[in-house]
Sequence to fold (486 residues):
Amino acid sequence: MGGFLERPRWQLGICLLVGLALRAPLFGDPYIHVDEAFYFLVGQEMHHGAIPFVDIWDRKPVGLFLLYYLIGGISRSVWSYQIAAWLFASGTAFTVCRIAMLWAKPRAAVLGGIAYLSGALIVDGVGGQAPIFYNLPMAIAAWCVASSLGDLESGRVARKVYVAMALCGIAITIKQTTLFESLFFGAFSLVALWRSEAPRQSVLRFALIAATLGAVPTVATAVFYAGIGHWHDFWQAMVVSNLSKPRPEGLLIYIRAVVLLIILGPLWFAAFCGMFFLESVSGFDPYRRFMKGWIAAALLGFVSVPNFYYHYGLPLLVPFGVAAATFYARPIIGTAMLTLLVGYSIYRIHLYDFSRWAQARWRMDDLASAIRQHDLGRGLLVFDGPPSLYFMTGNHPMSPLAFPHHLHHAIERNVSQFDTATEVRRIIARRPGAVVLEPKIINVPTNFDSRMVVMEYVARRCRFIDGQIIPMQLRKETVVVFGDCR
Fold:
């Protein structure tokens, strides 16, 4: 069995099959999560000439939208990004295997990869959340650095260390919080090289090249926006909006943090136990500092944006999966823990409740059909609901603030260069033919000023067309369409 599992192609095959089994039931669902529905919308709008931060706004870096742009160029079906997410997630799990193989036995390494795939399900990672995509370059970067430790300690810089720095630069353009792990990988390599007998000039040269490789993608993006006259829009999205966005009330933050820690409990417990049991694993000593530092850097990135939504835990799963590999391989307790993790992840999101996901698809199709028949050709406003209804109905957003949260969530008020109240009034002045709302307020605090303007328009000029209860992973959302607005 060991000889079978130690072959990389079989490890990759297992990760692909397990990943498919844990994700395929939701393929084709256009509303797995509001975030990825919006990312896919942005990618499609870019094919119509929209420029992120200018024509359609968000604070995510442009690399994420370029990725969805490329995926949208392959197919306009949600299957395209969901299949891409499966391949990225499985690729990350395979990379977890390869890192663990530096000191662990093949069976343990493979189980660490399976733990990553299973853990992703319990923190909103069954679809195309941003970490599902940037975890892969970060995991490969970790492997490049860890597997080059011997060279670095001997005063040599392997080419794959430079590849790691370039991958970190790419990851930063997908999500800014990858900066912390990126800095760790660079600093760890630099310190290892400094402690060797390498000439100080070589160490300095490495530092300059590593910093350049990490910075080039972001600098190139900034230069592009400056060149087209939209530097301030880029700066507002990347820096000002993140600093000016108010945080939710303290109690809500604490509740979210506690809930997320409980949900991640089996994963960080297994990682802790894995690190403890690694004390007796031959060959681990050279990698001990690397793993401790990597986990610390991932945790720092996790707390740097203290909103603590479930999917914020996804980046932690990569070092956790590596660290826990040897624990999961233990015959009784490790096997039981991994079995419980897989079982819980399947149960938590109703993965194999096929009727649930069939309902989600046809009910979204019904909503889209109702909008197409009753928008009078005057456009659509998704004030609160699935942004995927834009591309499902052939409509384009009527404002750069196309992500519903930017219109109805109070903490998003005026964080972009667009005044929220002005944008809402401008949309309503254009008299959209259909409006999508969720009657139950989920995101608090709510921007009641914007909501009152939209509700008044709906009450005076629109009529109720359709309402559907959309099954999702952890809850069901009621989505209502008002149409024939005159």
In short: The chain has 22 helices and four strands.
